[in-house]
Amino acid sequence: MSGGSSAHSGRRLAVASVLVLTMGLLIASAPSAFPSTASSKVDPRVAAQIRTHGSADFWVLFQKKANLAPAKAIKNWAARGWYVVSRLKGTANASQHSFRAYLDRAHASYQAYWIVNGIHVLGGSQRIVDAAAARPEVRRIMADNAAHVSKYTVGTRIPASTDGFEWNIKNILANKVQKSLGIKGAGAVVANIDTGVQYNHPALVIQYRGNLGGGSFDHNYNWWDPSGVCGNTPCDNVGHGSHTMGTMVGKAGINRIGVAPKAKWIAAKGCESNSCSLSNLSSAGQFMLAPTNLNGQNPDASKRPDVINNSWSGGGGDNFYQAIVTAWVSAGIFPQFANGNAGPSCGSSGSPGDYTNSYSAGAYDINNTIASFSSRGPSAFGGEIKPNLSAPGVNVRSSVPNNTYAVFSGTSMASPHVAGTVALIISKNSALRGNIGAIRTLLDNSGTDVNSLTCGGSLDDNNVFGEGRLNALTAVQNAALAGKQN
Fold it and tell me: Where are the beta strands (DSSP E) in 158-199?
C-alpha cells in the first residue's frame, strides 16, 4: 500500500462516527462553500466538517486513468495481473507525486491508494482543501464515507435433507453438480471482502489457502486486515464474513453448506464491523488485485483470486468504487456483489452492485418468491438490468464463529451462491478463468426465468429477478461448451 504519515485513530474515529450517519456513498451536489473557481471540485460536506470541527478526513481523487484495456489480451495469468498493477501504480505515482510532496511539507497525515488514484487525507485543513482544489490534476475532493455490510436478519432454520445438503444448495442444484458431475470447485480460488473469516472453523479450515497441513498455517498472501481489528491472524468480529464464505465453500461432515467445497479461499477484512470505511475497502481492493505478505509488502499478482464476493453496499449511483471494479475485471477477477436490501422499491439497487461491470444478486426464499427486502433496478447508471441474477437469500444456514452455524437472511446471503457457482464453472473449464464476459453469459443464460415485471423489463430479464433464478447445474454443464477466448 502506498504510504504517508500515520493517522491518529481517535480523531479518525470521531469524524467517521459522524460520517457513517449519512448511511451511504451518495455525493451531494449542492454548490460549494468555497469562493474559488476550483470550489466546484469540493464536496460541500467537507466544508461543513471543517467549519464544525476545524478539520476533516477527505479524499483527493485525481483526473488521470490508467489504460487497462490491453490486459484482456494477455493470456498468462501472472503477466495479466502484473500489467494491471504496474499501469495503475505508474499512473497514480505520476498523478500524485507533486501533491504528496506538498502534504509531506505540510506534515499532513494521509494514505495514498494506487487502485483508485486517490489520497485519503486525515484531519486535513481548509488550506489543504484549497491547495488540492486549485491543482488541475485533481478531479474532486470528496467526503470520507462508509459502506455497510448488506443488512441481514437472523432467520429460522429449514431442516437440511438427509444427505446434509441445505435447502439453498439443492435449490440451485449445486448438490447435483457436486454429486452427479463430481465438480466441487477444485482449482478455483474464491475471496470475500467482508467482516473477516474464522479461518479455523471446521467447515472452512480445509479450504483455506493458508492451511499448510498438519496444523500449520501461513497467512501471508491469504489474509489482509487494514482495519487492525484482527491483525495478522484471520478473525471475524461480526460473523457476516464467515457466513458468506461458508455459502461459497463450506463443508464439515453432514454440514453441506457450500456451493463449491473444494475451492480454496482467501479474505480481506474491508469492514471494521457492520460498516466498511472507504479506506479499508480500497486497501482490500488493492490486496485482492495483488496479494501481499502480512506487512503489506512484496505483492504478487499471480496469487489473486478468480472471484470476489462483496456482500456490502452503499447508496445507489455512487461511482467511487468503479475504478476498483474496473481493475479487477481487467485483471480477470469476477466482481460479485449483493444488490442491496432496500427493496421493494424500484431503483433501489446499491453501489457498487449497480455498476454495469459488476455482477449483482437479488434474494428469494424457499418458495422461489423474491424477498421483500431485495433491492430492485433499474440501475442509476443505466445500461443494464439489476440485479443480474437472483439466488437463495432467506433463511440461509451457514458457518459463523465460534465453530457453529446460524441462519441469516439478506442479499448478502444470496451473492455468495453466485460467487461459488463461478468457482464451479472455472473448475469445470479452467480455460474460462479470467474470461469475465463468457462467465457472465453462462450465468445469464442458465437462469430460470421468472415473470416479475413490476419494475420493468421482460420475462427473460427484469429488474426484480434479473436473468432469473440461479441454476448452477445448467451453468456448469454449459461451461464445457463455452468459448475459450478472452
Answer: 189-193
Report the percent of the chain where pLDDT is more than 70.
91
**SS3 state of residue 6:** coil
Give me the mean pLDDT over the 71-97 stretch. 98
- Nearest-angstrom CA–CA distance, 286 and 85: 9
From 429, 424, 433, select the one nearest 480 (Cα to Cα): 429
Residue 483's pLDDT band (cuts 50, 70, 90): low
C-alpha cell at 211: 492451511
**DSSP letter (8 states) at residue 71:** G
Contact (Cβ atoms closer than 8 angstroms) between residue 46 and residue 32: no
- Torsion, Cα 104 108 114 118, to 10 degrees, reads -120
In the numeric block, which cell numbers belong to residue 444?
445469464
Helical axes 322-331 vs 278-289, angle rounded to 10°: 10
Q: Which helix (H) or strand (E) holds 78?
A: helix 77-105
Instruction: Assign 38 a pLDDT band (cuts: 50, 70, 90).
Output: low
Helix H segments across 263-378?
Answer: 278-289, 322-331
* Rounded-to-integer distance, Cα 178 and Cα 94, Å: 49
Domain spans of the chain? Answer: 9-144, 149-479
Q: Tell me the CA end-to-end span of the chain in Å, nearest whole number.
A: 29
Q: Does domain 149-479 have CATH number 3.40.50.200?
A: yes
Cell 430460470 belongs to 448
Range of weakest confidence among 143-152, 159-168, 193-202: 143-152
Exposure string (b/e) for 166-198, b if CB count within 10 Å is 16 or more? bbbbbbbbbbbbbeebebbbebbbbbbbbbbbb
Q: Are 455 and 376 in contact (CB under 8 A)?
A: yes
Catalytic annotation, residues: 194, 240, 412
pLDDT value, residue 2: 40
DSSP 313-345: EBSTT--TTHHHHHHHHHHT-EEEEE--S-TTS
371: nearest Cα among 350, 395, 349: 395
On the 0-12 / 13-18 / 19+ scale of CB atoms within 10 A, 146 is buried
CA 130 to chain centre: 33
Where does 235-394 have alpha helices with state H? 240-249, 278-289, 322-331
> Which three cell numbers, joined as nine digits, stand for 112?
495514498
Could you tell me the pTM of the whole model? 0.90
Q: In 3-state terms, what secondary structure has residue 360?
A: strand
